[in-house]
Amino acid sequence: MRLIFVGPPGAGKGTQASRLSAERGITQVSTGDALRQAVKAGTKMGIKAKAFMDAGQLVPDEVVIGIVREKLGSDACRDGFILDGFPRNTGQAEALGAILQDFSAPVDRVVAFTVDDEALVARLSGRRTCPSCHAMFHIAYAAPKQGGVCDRCGGALVQRDDDHEDVIRKRLAVYAAETRPLLEYYEDRGLLTQVPAEGSVDDVYSALLKAVAG
User: Fold this and answer.
1) Is 99 within a domain?
2) Catalytic residue among 69, 71, 127, 128
3) In this structure, what CATH number is given to the domain that contains residue 16?
C-alpha cells in the first residue's frame, strides 16, 4: 500500500499516519524525520542538506526531493509507505511521480484530511506545551489538572509561537495557496479521497480505513 496524506496544519494527518503505520506495518515517511535521518547517516543528500542547515538556510526542493528518493528506495519502503508532509505543491508532486515511476511503484491513494479553518484555529491555539518534558495539553480537550501546570513534571506550560492565532492563520493561508492545488492535481488522476477530520481520533481513523480500502 502506497499512500500520500495531505491536509492543513492541525488536521491530524501525522497522528493517523502513525496509527495506520503501526497497525498495518507500513513505513511512515515524514519529510522532517527523513531529513534528520539522512543528515545523521551522512547520505549524499544528507550531506548536502546539512550544508544548508549549518548556514541557517532552508533546504531547497531539489535536496528534499533527493532525500525522499533515498528513503523511498530503501528496504523499509519496499512493501509500501505513507508519505506524510510531502508533496506540498504540484512541483513536488511531479517530481514524486517521476521517482515512483523509476521504482515502478505508483501511488495507490491520496487521502486529504479536511477541517474547517475556524476549527483548526481553535484546535491549534488551545495547545499548551511543557518545555521541560514536552508533554502536550489542550485548554479545551485535554486540560491539565491545574491551570498552566504540567501534570507530568510540574513545569509551567507555554503556548508555542506557532500556536498563536495570527501565526496559525498565516500558516493556513500558505496551505491554501500552495498545497490545496494538490487536491485538483490528484483528483484529476483519480487518486484523491477526502476524509473529514473534525471528529474524534477513532472516528477519523474509521473513515480513513474505509478510504484506503476502496
Assistant:
1) yes
2) 127
3) 3.40.50.300
173: which residues sit within 8 A by CB, 6+ positions away? none
- Per annotation, catalytic residue among 24, 88, 109, 169: 88
Structure confidence by residue, pLDDT tens digits, 26-74: 999 988 888 888 899 998 899 999 998 888 787 888 999 999 998 999 9
- Domain contains 48: no
Please state the length of the chain.
Answer: 214
Amino acid in the structure at residue 204: V
The continuous run of DSSP H or E covering 29 comes out as strand 27-30
pTM: 0.84
What total of structural domains would you count in the chain? 1
* Strand duo 136-138 + 192-196: pairing: unpaired
**Does the active-site annotation cover 123?**
no
Per the annotation, the verdict on 78 as an active-site residue is no
CA atoms within 13 A on the CB side of 22: 7
Does 171 qualify as catalytic in the annotation?
Answer: yes
| In a domain? residue 153 | yes
Residue 149, in any domain of the structure: yes
Active site residue 13: yes
Residues 6+ apart with CB under 8 A from 178: 88, 89
Give residue 148's domain range.
2-26+79-213
- 71 as an active site residue: the answer is no
